Amino acid sequence: MRLAFWLALLGAVPLLALDGVVLNGTTRRPQSGVEITLVQPSANGMNQLGKATSGADGKFKIDAIIPPGPGLVQSTYAGVTYNQIITPGMPTSAVEVKVFDSTKAANIAKAAEHLILIEPTADQIKVSETFVFLNESTTTFNDPARGSARFFIPAASIDSARVVISGPGGMPITRPAAKTNEKNIYKADYPIKPGETRIDLTYTAPAAKKFAGKIVASDSSTHIVTPGSVSLTGDGIEVAGREPQTQANIYNVTGLDYNVLIDGVGQLRGDAGTAPEEDNGQPKPEFVPARIDARKWWIVGLTCGILALGGAMLFRRGTA
Fold it and tell me: What's the pLDDT at 195?
C-alpha cells in the first residue's frame, strides 16, 4: 500500500524542471519578457513540453515531463528565435539562455564565403551554393524585407530549390526561397546572429551544354567548383586552379553574370554512373566550410560529397 502511494506520487512529479536566466548579449544584463519554450523533436515534428516568460530579473522556470532524448530550448526576443540544445545528462538548473538586440544595419553581417558547385550529369545539372556569413558584433542582423541572402534561381529550377540554414549552435532548418521584386532573384529570410551562419541552396536544371547564372552583389568573392571531369569555358569566369586532393576545378567569377559552356559530366560525391549509396540510417558525410581567419585564403580542400540537408562542399583557408 505504501509502495503504491509513493509510485503514484513520483508519477505526478515532473521528470524535468528547467530553470535559468536569460541574458542579453548586447547589453550584458538580464533580460525580462523573453518567451521561453521547451520542445522536443519527434517523428511528428516538434512537441511543446512547457513554456515560461522571463521575469524582471531575467529568471524563468519550466516544470515539464520530458521523454528520453534531447530537448530544445527556444527563446524569442525582438522578433528573433534562439535555440539551445539540452541533451540527456546536461544540467537543467541555472541554465543560461542568451539573446541579443536586433538591427537592420547590413554592415553587421558580412558575407565571408560564396561557393557554387556545378555537377552536370546525363540527366540534369545539380547546383549547390554555399553562403557563409560572419557576424562579429553582439547584435543580430534581422531584415525580413530584404532577407539575409539573395540569390539567382533559373525559372525552370524553382520547384527543385531547397534552402537549409545552419546558425550558430543551432540545428539545421529549412526555409523557403522567397520571391523578391527582381526577376529570378530570391531571398532567404533568416536573422544572422552573432557568430557564423551558413546558408546552403540547392537546385537542379535540365541537362544542357550551357549554363548561365547571376551573382547578387556581396562582400565576398565567388568561386565556382566542378568535378575534375568537368571543365567550364565562357564569359564571366577565369581559371583559378585545381584542388590537389580531389582534382576539382576551381574558377573565379569575375563579374555579376556568368555564361559558360560545360564539357563533361561528373559528381564530387562519386561517379555519376554508380548506384546510389544505401541508406543505412547513419549520418551522411557533411562538407562544412572552415571558419574564416585573418590570413589570405585559398581553397585547399574539397572532398567528394553533398550535404544531405542541402548540399555544399568542404572549404577551408590556407596560405596563398
Answer: 95
What is the pLDDT, as a whole number, of residue 214? 94
Query: How many Å apart are CA 143 and CA 141, to the nearest integer?
Result: 7
State which H helix or E strand residue 58 sits in: none
Cell of 272: 555519376
Percent of the chain with pLDDT strictly greater than 90: 59
Cβ atoms 189, 175 nearer than 8 A: yes
- pLDDT(111) > 60: yes
* Whole-number Å distance between alpha carbons of 300 and 242: 9
Domains, the chain, in order of start with CATH, read 2-100 (2.60.40.10), 106-263 (2.60.40)
Alpha carbon distances (Å) from 56 to 33, 39, 59, 99: 7, 24, 7, 15
| Average of per-residue pLDDT values in the chain | 81
- Rounded Cα distance between 269 and 174, Å, is 22
Strands (E), 153-245: 162-166, 173-175, 178-179, 185-188, 195-206, 210-214, 222-226, 231-235, 237-242
* Residues 169 and 227: beta-carbon distance below 8 Å: no
How far apart (Å, rounded) are the C-alpha atoms in residues 294 and 319?
10
Q: CA angle at residue 107 from 218 to 28, to 5 degrees?
A: 140
Cα angle, residue 194 at apex, residues 193 and 199 outer, rounded to 5°: 50
Q: How far apart are CA 35 and CA 55, in angstroms?
A: 10
Reported confidence tier of residue 269, pLDDT bands at 50, 70, 90: low
